[in-house]
Amino acid sequence: MIYGGRFDAQAWYEIMDKYEVTNFAAAPTAYRMIMAAGDELSKRYRIKARRFTSAGEYLNPEVSEWFKKHFGVSVSDQYGLTEVAMILDNYPFMPEKPGSMGRPLPGFEVKIMDEEGNELPPGESGIIMVKKNPF
Questions:
Q1: Across residues 51-74, what is the average pLDDT?
Q2: Are residues 77 and 56 in contact, defined by beta-carbon separation less than 8 angstroms?
Q3: Same domain, 119 and 80
Q4: Which of 73, 78, 110, 128 is the most exposed place for a label (fewest CB within 10 A)?
Q5: Residue ranges making up the domain that contains 88
Q6: Do both 82 and 129 map to the same domain?
Q7: Whether 55 and 113 share a structural domain
Q8: Which burial class, exposed, middle or buried, applies to 16 when counting CB atoms under 10 A from its CB (0-12, 13-18, 19+)?
Q9: Considering only CA atoms, which of 93, 97, 36 is closest in space to residue 61?
Q10: Does the pLDDT value for residue 84 go beyond 90?
């Protein structure tokens, strides 16, 4: 199902409840708007989602935690490119680290590099390098 209207938290709750949506994907801004609509709406509707996913910008861990508290399912962040599709994913069968974009999907090697092309250790910020494995 694709919703073509301007995003609105009230409409989101109504659609999720009416159509019993089980898998929902949106940009973090939509998730923040749902959260900002308050706790009261979350109590009025039956949200049956088994998976929430997000990509396109940074998803702050507080949003994921809010969804876990109110709907029993956290928001899994992902990373991808329009030309390639998803590259990193928080797999539903693995524990998630808050604030993480997950692990590489099969067929991709992902490293964090500095500006000189040197691989950086875990926890360091840098440039995301993606190499497609030739299999």
A1: 92
A2: no
A3: no
A4: 128
A5: 9-104
A6: no
A7: no
A8: buried
A9: 97
A10: no
Q: Tell me if 1 is assigned to some domain.
A: no
82 versus 110: which is more confidently predicted? 110
Higher pLDDT, 99 or 34: 34
Give yes or no for residue 135 having a pLDDT over 70.
no
Tokens of 123: 């926890």
* pLDDT exceeds cutoff 70 at 134: no
CB-facing half-sphere around the CA of 106: CA atoms within 13 A = 1
Residues 96 and 68 in one domain: yes
Nearest to 130 by CA among 88, 94, 71: 88
CA atoms within 13 A on the CB side of 25: 9
Average pLDDT of 51-62? 90
